[in-house]
Amino acid sequence: MTALALILAGIAGLFHVLFFKLESLDWRKPATWKTFGLTSQADAETTAPLAYNQGFYNLFLAIGAFTGIGLVAFDDTHDTIGWTLIVFACACMLGASLVLISTGRSYARAASIQGVPSLLAVAAALVAAT
Asked: CA-CA distance, 100 to 113, in Å (whole number)?
């Protein structure tokens, strides 16, 4: 179960690195802002500072998950810290997906992409850590 939990947390972390790239680095590109439902370059420019900030939140959550994975996988003396980081980071990712879906059904696909790996990672981590 440990390997599964680490893989799922890694997948959740990788998705959040991708979200960081899209929101913080590529936001002003038409393909990116259209993916997020914006309809004009002007809207992308207006929302760019918010997206930039949100992207860094995603990056920091990914770093937390990756740090936890590293501690569990490579440092037996800090297992508890590693599992705590994994569960906390992935639970935050899951919470964000629930907030996203609460804003409207049109966000169900995006919320699923963000939330399902995180939910599975939290569940697997809680089983593996006990």
From this structure: 11
Instruction: Label residue 102 by pLDDT band (50, 70, 90).
Output: very high
User: What is the C-alpha separation between 22 and 9, in angstroms, rounded?
Assistant: 20
Cα first-last separation, the chain: 11
CA gap 60, 89 in Å, rounded: 9
- Radius of gyration over alpha carbons of the chain, in Å? 16
Angle made by CA atoms 74, 7, 80, in degrees to the nearest 5: 45
Phi, psi of 37, rounded to the nearest 5 degrees: 85, 10
Q: Are 70 and 79 in contact (CB under 8 A)?
A: no
pTM confidence score:
0.93
HSE, CB side, 13 Å, CA atoms: give it for residue 11. Answer: 15
Question: Residue range 96-114: average pLDDT?
Answer: 94
Instruction: Provide the residue type at 109 as one letter.
Output: R
The beta strands (E) that lie in the chain are given as none
Residue with tokens 């966000």: 107
35 is written with which tokens? 């993916």
